[in-house]
Amino acid sequence: MARQFRLQNSQGKLIDMNTDDLFSYSPEGLGVNISNSYYGSDINFMLQSAGLAQNVIKLNLMFGGGVSKNPYKDYNDFVLFIDDDGLKLQYSVPGIGELLRDVRIKELTKSEINAFQVIDESLTLECTSPWYQWVTGSVTRYIDQAGDGKIFSNVDMDNNDGFYVHDFAFEEDYTINSGQFSIQNNSTYFGMSIGAPLELKITAINMPIVNPSWELYKDGVMLQSDGYYVTIPIGDTLVISSDPTDLRAELVHADGTTVNVYQNQNMAKTNFIRVPKGITQIKMGDLLKQAKVEFRVKNEYVIV
Fold this sequence. Notes:
Number of helices: 3
Radius of gyration: 23 Å
Shape: globular
């Protein structure tokens, strides 16, 4: 399988740039550019600051080389698709999987049909995020299964395969009783980030949940914490996201309406947890016995 590029719009629709009618080739700007500043100390140089340059990706596009034999229409269809403020570039990499990158259009050239009866142009995209993959998991108490004890959703990110989460059977509810679950962050930052964004969804199942809070640990040391002075009624969900592009703290009622609870954040906590590289634990105590907890970590890659 060769590398493939697609564009996704704000409605989640995809346009494939690997077909004969719309074919991308000779990509540029897929690497990383870091600006380092140093100060001299004797014969050594000490890092003073480091900054990640914004990526600009350029793709050559050939329109009308396939069965359509209508390069003008193929080009116009593409223009109509990219007239969107929420574009994401999808990059399928052999052996790695599918990654997304938030982008904005900087330039799309336009010329006439050439001697090969195609329109050959270039597309320039300004990147507003690194490459990323959302990896999901959940922790839910289910009813007993005959011969198996209880069934719990996978809470070990090592067992995740790309975007998929697998369920496993355990004879004892170790995760529920310990009040914690594990998260793995496999991002590549080159020292440019404090950690991966985390989204938590806490749904009250059997009883209202009052003033939920949680902590992030690594190697037995508490690094971050978060909490809210709020009551989650049965059936409602508290959603907390530390993603800079979607920073939010809201209560989602069972009927779908939402209430912003940012002002109810416990300011004694560090707030809006960002997950460092490696394996960490989210500790919630008895909260895991009272709620369904779903989580997503945004693995980010400045280069792949």
